[in-house]
Design the sequence.
């Protein structure tokens, strides 16, 4: 069987698997959100203590990504993925059996350190297989699949909690982990040949991270994507208060308002996957960061003036969050494209930065809370402006379209050879 046939017969399934592995972090977050009050009641803890389980999880994912990327550059993508998912499954089992909130916090940390492997190694795998605009297209296709998590997980969790204990949520995560682990073992060939693997040293690792961020273009793509994610996390933290308490939206309708943002991300991710190879990475990011900034400024304007009430600020929020569908995949592709053997290190920096900045932004929403939408809106506005400026002055000044001309290369020879080997 030829390499071309191998690509055609497996690429679709592999993209679904890549997206599923990457979405595992989202499932582990979104499935647990509706369960927090039930956990507090069951473990006789206050909500502040239970919310620590989410904070620890986010930090664990950020820190875990710093480790898994370099490990995948040294030992290969598949082996590191298997290790991470074993840890995730073990952590989920421990969470399901926790007898105190202190235990749950510790077990959620273990769980997060395992699931962190998904996003960081999958981005490196995409870099192994695809380049330039083709990589951005694949990342957009993956995002479309990944967005099933924030759409479905809260609804599924709420239904399960009507009939079962909160512990069933973690048993469901065990099942998800086992399914994805089986998919990795059976359907994902190793994409980093032994000859291209590199030695790692704990002493030199910080220097490697710094070297990535000191590159002007890489730093521009990094900050563009990271600031956009920070604004998204600010929305996640502030939107329940803004919609339900400030504007008086009934709880049963909140999901529709929240879900419309996910649908907008899906729509723009689909659009990006369709046109990115024709338009080019540089022009697409230029337009996306302009739109994001205009939306972010509009959010703050409507929050400060109150013009239009809910229906004044709501469209601007949907537009801003939707821009994630254009910026996330394209900034990731731009950041990863110049790197081959060190794609894991670069992916680690990217993933950790997005979660750490997101954690900081969501914390600031709570810190500056003043019973109005202004704190959330101000952080969203600042994030959008900083993302635009990062791309405008660090990348597009020597435009990305020129640095990375449209690539028609679809699948690198590595996966074709690996697929033939497996046969």
Sequence:
């Amino acid at each position: 069987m030829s390499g071309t046939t191998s690509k055609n017969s497996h690429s679709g399934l592999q993209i679904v698997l890549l997206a599923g592995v990457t979405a595992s972090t989202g499932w582990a977050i979104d499935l647990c959100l509706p369960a927090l009050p039930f956990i507090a009641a069951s473990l006789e803890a206050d909500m502040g203590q239970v919310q620590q389980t989410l904070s620890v999880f986010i930090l664990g994912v950020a820190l875990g990504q710093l480790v898994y990327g370099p490990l995948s550059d040294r030992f290969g993508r598949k082996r590191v993925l298997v290790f991470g998912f074993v840890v995730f499954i073990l952590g989920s089992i421990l969470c399901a059996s926790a007898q105190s909130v202190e235990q749950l916090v510790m077990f959620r940390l273990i769980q997060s350190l395992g699931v962190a492997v998904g996003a960081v190694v999958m981005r490196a795998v995409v870099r192994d297989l695809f380049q330039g605009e083709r990589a951005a297209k694949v990342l957009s296709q993956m995002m479309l699949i990944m967005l099933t998590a924030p759409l479905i997980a809260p609804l599924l969790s709420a239904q399960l909690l009507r009939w079962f204990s909160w512990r069933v949520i973690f048993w469901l995560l065990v099942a998800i982990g086992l399914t994805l682990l089986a998919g990795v073992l059976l359907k994902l060939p190793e994409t980093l040949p032994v000859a291209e693997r590199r030695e790692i040293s704990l002493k030199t690792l910080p220097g490697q991270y710094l070297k990535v961020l000191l590159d002007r273009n890489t730093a521009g793509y990094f900050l563009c994507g990271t600031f956009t994610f920070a604004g998204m996390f600010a929305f996640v933290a502030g939107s329940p208060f803004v919609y339900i308490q400030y504007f008086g939206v009934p709880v049963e309708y909140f999901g529709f308002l929240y879900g419309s943002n996910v649908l907008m991300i899906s729509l723009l991710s689909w659009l990006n996957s369709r046109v990115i190879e024709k338009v080019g990475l540089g022009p697409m990011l230029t337009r996306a960061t302009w739109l994001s900034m205009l939306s972010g400024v509009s959010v703050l304007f409507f929050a400060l003036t109150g013009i239009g009430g809910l229906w004044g600020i709501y469209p601007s929020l949907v537009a801003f969050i939707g821009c994630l569908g254009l910026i996330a995949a394209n900034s990731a592709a731009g950041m990863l494209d110049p790197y081959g053997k060190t794609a894991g290190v670069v992916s680690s920096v990217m993933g950790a930065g997005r979660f750490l900045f997101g954690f900081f932004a969501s914390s600031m929403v709570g810190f500056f809370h003043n019973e109005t939408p202004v704190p959330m809106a101000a952080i969203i506005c600042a994030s959008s402006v900083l993302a635009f400026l990062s791309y405008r002055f660090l990348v597009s000044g020597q435009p990305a379209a020129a640095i990375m001309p449209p690539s028609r290369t679809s699948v690198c020879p590595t996966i074709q050879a690996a697929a033939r080997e497996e046969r």
Observations:
- Residues 1-10, 399-423 have pLDDT under 50 and may be disordered.
- The longest helix spans residues 216-246.
- The chain is about 80% helix and 0% strand.
- The domain at 3-422 is CATH 1.20.1250.20 (Growth Hormone; Chain: A;).
